[in-house]
Structure formats: structure tokens, C-alpha cells
């Protein structure tokens, strides 16, 4: 698993590469929460362009971050999910809570 | 219907072995006449079942043992057994309910995925003895000659 963190003003953009399962979700949870606890971040963009697999551990990690960000009136977005990943996101109903976009550019343009 | 091929995996209840089990079973089931989407669904089911054993069966204790057995039948069907010898499930009907989880950071969708992507799911569990899942799925045999 590889993760790129980028901060643009008060928005943290994380780009995950690989499979988002139990091991990766636990590591990411800690890494993202550390950044959130530093207090300089309000919004979160989760870029799944390079994610080839997601299971309920990965979904749980995303929902947990959604709760934290929303509690501080921040916004969270998911971008670039491949069709097999998107299918699981839709199946879980996560798309009803978190807006999903094709690319980061699409969020910037709204 | 008879067994055409089978594989048995035994491994420690380490979180890292979730990916191992998923990749191994994913490679094994390519022998079936099914689509890539079907294989992705099987991989998801394995990931959920093995993650449950690691997280709930053994409370993340890496010294437990997990067994995964996969049978491929000559009618293009599949049986998956996932067993652990952990703490077991006290209330199976509650555990099978969507979004139920004993752990607040989990979504409680593991069994829902298993039920949705497999034709049948049986859960046997005894407190302090372990849990055994048996899942069945069959795939339509595609008549490739007719499609040609």
C-alpha cells in the first residue's frame, strides 16, 4: 500500500494506491486521524483512482472519517473510484452520505 | 455433482493473511467458467470472512488458526468453507443483520456481502470453540460455441 498526502489550504487530499482492506484501513485510519488532530485540516478528499479493491474494513475507515469531518462541519469527498470499487461503495450506501466525483478537478469546478 | 478440484489453506490469524487468502482463492477460482466481476465478488467474500475471524474470532490475536477450503464442482459450482477456533458468535441471527457490529469502527456489512454475493451461507458457531462458514455459489455455464 502506498499513500500520498497533500494539503491544499485546509483540505487534505489522500491518494491511496493498492488494495483497501483490513491492514491498509487500520494504518490509514491512524495516519489520517493524526493529520486531522493537528487541527489544520477541515476537509478531506479521498482519491481512489488507484485502488483496485475495497472491502467493509475500507468502507468502515471512510465512514469513520466522514463522522469526524462532519462533526467539525467539514466536507468529505470520494473521487475516481473504479467500477468494481464504485459498485461496493454504492452497495454499502456510502454514496448517499459522501459525494462522489470522477476526478479532483471536478470538485474544484463546483 | 462431484468435486473437480479443491484447495485447503491454513494460516495464522494475522491481518496480513487476509490479502493472502483473497489473492490465493481469487487465483484458484479462475478455473471456473465465470466473469472477472464474479471473481472480484469471491475475493470480497473471502476478505470479509477471514477479516471476521481475525477481528472478531480472535480479537486480533495473531496466534489463532484460520482454515479456508475451496471446492470447485464439475457443474461450475463453488463451495467455500472458512473456519476459525476462536471465541465464536453468541447470537448468529443478530450478527447476520446488516450494519450490526460489536465494533463501532466497523460497518457490519461483512455478512451482508457474503449473503449477497453467494447463493447460500450457513453459519455454525459455538462460544469459545469457533465459527465455521459454508458458502455456495454456482455459475451458469456459458456456451461459448453458441456465442461464437
Written account of the structure:
- The complex is a heterodimer of chains A (110) and B (148).
- By secondary structure, chain A is of the alpha/beta class.
- Chain A has a single domain (2-97), classed as 2-Layer Sandwich (Transcription Regulator spoIIAA).
- Chain A is built from four helices and five strands, in the order E-E-H-E-H-E-H-E-H.
- Chain A has helices spanning 22-37, 56-71, 83-92, 104-108, and strands at residues 2-8, 11-20, 43-54, 76-79, 100-101.
- A five-stranded mixed β-sheet of chain A has the order 1-2-3-4-5.
- In chain A, helix 2 (56-71) links the parallel strand 3 (43-54) and strand 4.
- The mean pLDDT of chain A is 92.
- With 148 residues, chain B is an alpha+beta fold.
- Chain B has a single domain, classed as Heat Shock Protein 90.
- Helices cover 34% and strands 29% of the residues of chain B.
- In chain B, strands 1-2-3-5-4 form a five-stranded antiparallel β-sheet, covered by helices on one side.
- In chain B, strand 2 and strand 3 form a beta hairpin.
- Chain B is globular and about 50 Å long.
- The two termini of chain B are 28 Å apart.
- The model of chain B has no long low-confidence stretch (mean pLDDT 92).
- The interface between A and B is medium-sized, with 19 and 22 residues.
List the helices and strands and how they pair.
The complex is a heterodimer of chains A (110) and B (148).
Chain A: E1 2-8, E2 11-20, H1 22-37, E3 43-54, H2 56-71, E4 76-79, H3 83-92, E5 100-101, H4 104-108
Parallel strand pairs in A: 2-3, 3-4, 4-5
Antiparallel strand pairs in A: 1-2
Helix pairs in contact in A: 1-2
Chain B: E1 3-12, H1 16-28, H2 36-57, E2 65-73, E3 77-84, H3 92-95, H4 110-117, E4 120-126, E5 130-138, H5 144-147
Antiparallel strand pairs in B: 1-2, 2-3, 3-5, 4-5
Amino acid at each position: 500500500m502506498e499513500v500520498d498526502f497533500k494539503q491544499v489550504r485546509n483540505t487534505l487530499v489522500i491518494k491511496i494506491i493498492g488494495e483497501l482492506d483490513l491492514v491498509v484501513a487500520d494504518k490509514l485510519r491512524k495516519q489520517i486521524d493524526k493529520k486531522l488532530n493537528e487541527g489544520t485540516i477541515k476537509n478531506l478528499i479521498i482519491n481512489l483512482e488507484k485502488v483496485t479493491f475495497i472491502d467493509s474494513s475500507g468502507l468502515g475507515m471512510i465512514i469513520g472519517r466522514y463522522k469526524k469531518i462532519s462533526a467539525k462541519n467539514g466536507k468529505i469527498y470520494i473521487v475516481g473510484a473504479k467500477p468494481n470499487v464504485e459498485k461496493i461503495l454504492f452497495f454499502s450506501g456510502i454514496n448517499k452520505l459522501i459525494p462522489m466525483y470522477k476526478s479532483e478537478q471536478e470538485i474544484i469546478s463546483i | 455433482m462431484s468435486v473437480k478440484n479443491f484447495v485447503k489453506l491454513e494460516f495464522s490469524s494475522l491481518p496480513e493473511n487476509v490479502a493472502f487468502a483473497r489473492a490465493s482463492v481469487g487465483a484458484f477460482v479462475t478455473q471456473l467458467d465465470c466473469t472477472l466481476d464474479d471473481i472480484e465478488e469471491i475475493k470480497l467474500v473471502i476478505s470479509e470472512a477471514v477479516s471476521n475471524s481475525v477481528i472478531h474470532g480472535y480479537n486480533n490475536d495473531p496466534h489463532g488458526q484460520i482454515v479456508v477450503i475451496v471446492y470447485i464442482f464439475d457443474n461450475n459450482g463453488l463451495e467455500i468453507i472458512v473456519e476459525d477456533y476462536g471465541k465464536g458468535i453468541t447470537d448468529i441471527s443478530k450478527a447476520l443483520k446488516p450494519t450490526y457490529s460489536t465494533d463501532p469502527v466497523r460497518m457490519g456489512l461483512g455478512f451482508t456481502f457474503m449473503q449477497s454475493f453467494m447463493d447460500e451461507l450457513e453459519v455454525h458457531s459455538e462460544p469459545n470453540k469457533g465459527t465455521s462458514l459454508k458458502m455456495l455459489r454456482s455459475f451458469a455455464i456459458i456456451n461459448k460455441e453458441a456465442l461464437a
